[in-house]
């Protein structure tokens, strides 16, 4: 969605809905407890927005699209927050008026911060940037890394992790049980999903050892956090070029020391897709891992964009 917004003609706006004040809904459960009312709220919202000719995305059920001639509008729902993106100013007024008759909602103005991601704009240069600097600062404080050194790389060169580096003695195991390894990996994962594809590889490797954490594994996770500290103010930038989708993929061959699996990954030039992981099974030497990875990339593109 942000990729589309990079053009000055695409404008976004954020709305907040009060699910407890849904209009024209007879179910009394909506006014009781959030746990019981959220499903009713989502069902009602889906019915309302489909009634205005929005179509739900098959890949992401929180994304709706409406196309009318040259006018295109996208709507993203997160619980009771709505991010509305369109290329026609008139559409905003029409949809806002329609939703106001069905929902209790508030116009929050132009979107600038959503789900921990800060949105910056440079309209003169037709550029848009995303950053999770505030989120990364919170993560560093949570794991007591705010005063650590700044790392140059998310993972040191020629570092190879394996299950052989797991604790060997009861004393080592007891010490590692107090390490918040899984929490740190999960916190980094959210940054990767949002704006930090540059640490995808390091996270992919470290996430494999959550059940057998050793000192080397934890040291690599801390290296990622040190790197994020140095680069926390960096942006994922979207320019004003043509919307041409290009994909790049690469792979190693049987690089995993534990099971001899290959490592593969891909990224698209519009920065709407990035993924890295191990090939699901061992592959014969006569099949290039890059070929399998390219096929996976193509399948995901067809699934998401048709």
Distance between the termini: 16 Å
Strand content: 15-25%
Total strand segments: 13
How would you write the strand order of the largest sheet? 2-3-4-5-1-6
The CATH class designation of the largest domain is Alpha Beta
Overall CATH architecture of the largest domain? 2-Layer Sandwich
Helix content: 25-40%
Structural class, please? alpha+beta
Structural features, described:
The chain is an alpha+beta fold and 306 residues long. It has three domains: 2-111, TATA-Binding Protein (2-Layer Sandwich), CATH 3.30.310; 137-231, no CATH class; 246-305, no CATH class. The chain has helices at residues 2-5, 34-50, 89-102, 133-142, 170-177, 181-194, 200-206, 215-231, 289-305; strands at 11-18, 55-56, 63-68, 71-78, 81-86, 104-107, 113-114, 117-122, 127-131, 236-238, 247-251, 263-268, 274-278. A hairpin with a 4-residue loop joins strand 8 (117-122) and strand 9. The two termini are 16 Å apart.
